[in-house]
Amino acid sequence: MSIMENGQDKASSLDHLDHCCQLVADTYGKPDSSEWTNSDFIRLCSILYKKTHVQISPNTLKRIFGKIKTDARYYPQKATRDALAQYVGFADWDQFILTQSRQQPAPPVRQPNPQPAVLRPVDVPLQQLPVRKSLVRKLIMAIFVLIVIAVAVWQGFLFWQSDQPEVTLFCKNPEGDNPHSAVFVVRNFRNVSELADDYTIEFGDGEKVRLNGKDSVYSNYYEVPGRCLAILKKAGVPLDTVPVFLHTSGWTATANMMYDTTRVYPIEAPGLFTGGYNSISAAQIARAGVDTNRTFFVDFINTHLTGIDGDNFELLIDVKASPARPGVRCSQVRVTVFGDSSNHMVDIMKPGCAHWSKLQFSELRKDGRSEGPNFLGADLTAGGTIGMKVVNRRATLLINDREVYKNTYKNALRHIYGLDIMFAGVGTIRSVRLKDLKTGKEFAGNF
Q: In the sheet where 180-187 sits, what is the strand order?
């Protein structure tokens, strides 16, 4: 049985919990947790999940930190205590307790809170008080009791409001082939129609829905392979996130047209990237239903459980961007590395179009509009290379072997779930090389 798990020595357990809460507050950057607002608890909930993969609701954090008052001091379950201990640098709660026991003397047992004393004269018997003084005393006591009752009723109302279960999002079938119909359940959502417009689900593929106040089950039809993050929001503030993963069997090709968000166009391409078959022709794209006289895009996607560390890998892609054609001026090439809770992505344009270029390494984001006209600008119509190298979250981007960006991100990508290489128009992929820098494991889609 783990340390303190049997409930013995509860006072000591609560002292350890208080100390851990103070360390959490110090690590969070706001040592005085009594001044935290609701947004602080929501933000800490997100930080804890990203670091420990344990979901702790904002209301649970409020109980732990005493923001929500309970009859008895709230003592969370073991998994929650483990997550708090991990956030402040310990392996788990047991190691935290063991360390504290070695470093500090046993904390004194807390004494029960003294009951407020009733003011009464101690040197004069009650029966000897004048009648008028007795009546005044009774009136004062009656007013005091009414105030206590009113405060208790108000605190109970506030506690009832704050103690409502946190609204969460759950996916019944988060993994599948392409296409995939994912079913989502909104848990603990009250049947209150006037609040429905506050809640939305953004499915991560450009689609979203508003909760209608009556239904708790919603579905979304995913048409493009990859890893999407469905986000439940209230008034624009994220409450919960659920990943949805569509895997492929080898490389696939899917087309779509600008300003046409109603559908995508899967392209039949057996044997893609074998025997010199490294591109999809305009005729094949047209047969899939795309108007090739308009601006169109083709995504080459290979997604599966790669076993490659998203924070320690090397990727090199040799590509040839689309030549000029109707609807294609900037010869755009976008490379996306799918991760657990975020992505790495680079969007490269011709130098004259660098205003629209973008870059992402986990939570770090840059774009041509803020970095100047030369950032991420490269003409790859005659061919060129795009490289990513990440070592312990230190990311480097290279275009044609030239380093164009280097920085360290905080939120780990963890596992790589595959690649998406997108072209505006007709592009060619001449080779892909992705491998884990720690284990040497190579991507099954390399060629």
A: 168-171, 180-187, 217-222
Rounded Cα distance between 209 and 230, Å, is 11
Residues 339 and 363 in one domain: yes
Q: Does residue 373 have a cis bond before it (omega within 30 degrees)?
A: no
Residue 236 is part of which domain span? 168-246
CB-side neighbour CA atoms (13 Å) of 279:
16
What average pLDDT does the segment 290-302 reach?
Answer: 94
For residue 304, with 0-12 CB atoms within 10 Å meaning exposed, 13-18 middle and 19 or more buried, which class applies? middle
In this structure, the answer to whether residues 391 and 409 fall within a common structural domain is yes
pLDDT in tens, 45-81: 889 988 888 889 888 899 899 888 777 778 889 989 9
Q: What's the rounded Cα separation, in Å, for the pair 395 and 430?
A: 24
DSSP assignments along 331-388, one per residue = --EEEEEE-SS-EEEEEEB-GGGGGG-EEEETTEEEEHHHH-TTTTB---TT-EEEEE
Query: What would you measure as the largest C-alpha separation in the chain, in angstroms?
Result: 111
Distance from chain centroid for Cα 416: 16
Phi, psi of 312 (to 5 degrees): -150, 85
């392979």: which residue's tokens?
225
181 half-sphere exposure, CB direction, 13 A CA radius: 3
Which of 301, 315, 174 lies closest to 248 in space, CA to CA?
Answer: 301
Predicted pLDDT at 137:
76
Mean pLDDT, residues 384-388 taken together: 98
Number of H helices, E strands in the chain: 8, 21
Q: Does residue 113 lie in a domain region? A: no
The pLDDT of residue 129: 45
Query: Which pair of tokens denotes residue 80?
Result: 């929650």
Torsion of CA 267, 420, 317, 393, to 10 degrees: -170
Output the DSSP codes for 167-178.
Answer: PEEEES--EESS
Q: Rounded mean pLDDT of the chain?
A: 85
SS3 state of residue 131: helix
Compute the distance between CA of residue 345 and CA of residue 258 in angstroms, rounded to an integer.
20
CATH number at residue 280: 2.60.120.200
* pTM metric for this prediction: 0.64
Angstrom distance (rounded) from CA 213 to CA 186: 11
